[in-house]
């Protein structure tokens, strides 16, 4: 199977890190910021 890099489309907030996983991805805010990865403050 081939895994697409869902992070290539930059789905996360600009103050968050995108972690590509097999078939999915998740976002997490950078240290010092709070939120769900899609919204960080």
From TrEMBL:
Q: Which InterPro entries match?
A: EGF, EGF-like_Ca-bd_dom, EGF-type_Asp/Asn_hydroxyl_site, EGF_Ca-bd_CS, NELL2-like_EGF
Per its record, what are the GO molecular function terms? calcium ion binding
Pfam families named in the record: EGF_3
Check the record and name the SMART domains matching this protein: EGF, EGF_CA
The record, for SUPFAM superfamilies, names:
EGF/Laminin
- Cite the entry's keywords alphabetically: Disulfide bond, EGF-like domain, Repeat, Signal
Query: Which residue numbers delimit the EGF-like domain?
Result: 3-39
UniProt keyword Signal, yes or no? yes
Keyword set includes Repeat: yes
The source's domain of life comes to Eukaryota
Q: What is this protein called?
A: EGF-like domain-containing protein
């Amino acid at each position: 199977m081939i895994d697409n890099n869902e992070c290539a489309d930059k789905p996360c907030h600009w103050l968050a890190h995108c972690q590509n996983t097999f078939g999915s991805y998740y976002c997490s805010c950078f240290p010092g910021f709070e939120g769900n990865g899609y919204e960080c403050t």
